[in-house]
Design goal:
Elements (H helix, E strand, L loop, with lengths): L2 E5 L7 H4 L8 E2 L2 E2 H11 L4 E6 L3 H8 L8 E6 L5 H8 L8 E6 L2 E3 L3 H9 L8 E8 L7 E4 L5 E5 L8 E11 H5 L9 H9 L4 E5 L4 E3 L3 H9 L2 H4 L3
Parallel strand pairs: 1-4, 1-6, 4-5, 8-12
Antiparallel strand pairs: 2-3, 6-11, 7-13, 8-11, 9-10
Length: 238
Amino acid sequence: MQSLILAGGLGTRLRPVLGETPKPMAPLAGRPFLEYLLLQLRRDGLRQVVLLTGSGSAAVRQYFRDGRDWGISIAYSDESEPLGTGGAVRHALPLLEGTRFLVMNGDSFFDISMLDLIAAHESRKGAEPAATLALARLDHTERFGSVEVDAAGHVTAFREKAANQGAGLINAGIYVVERSVVEAVPNGRAVSLERDVFPGLVGHGLRGAELTGSFVDIGVPDAYQGLRTDPAAILALA
């Protein structure tokens, strides 16, 4: 199964900390953050990777090249203009083979086995799911919003970010997505997986799999600096 990493974000919220360094290349214990995601995929035997790049693509290509030094194969899908998470995946479709793909956000790390998520997607009874989201349970969900699922694992609702939201399940930024879902995304325009695609799939094959593992992200300066101060959750991959 090919793995796609969304690595084209502008990283405007991190610019005060990173300057012109692309967000996927944010340094963590001497390595770019993106490198740890690639090591996670390799650990789980997923060695065919497509990096969905945009802003800062030259720096990403120069560092990772074809992936051979990491024992993986890397292809690149470059955006000439921001297409959002859904538009970026649709733009990469000519590079994709097979009927389903693993998709990862490039600015978060969820220490799970990707094989567990794939198995959860493929083992669903009845109609095949359109996509399965990896869900993490947090004590405080206000920065991310929350996801509600029923007893069978169907996603029933997305709750917007709100102050004092409390504990719950969040979208941890890793998905197994069927090719038919990608093909249905309009080509050449900005589309968000989180705001446009997934909400439209509620009631139409969108599943969630609650998995256990450390969850960290670098989306805002405080979170990134916190991870730099205590990188233990991710350094085991190095």
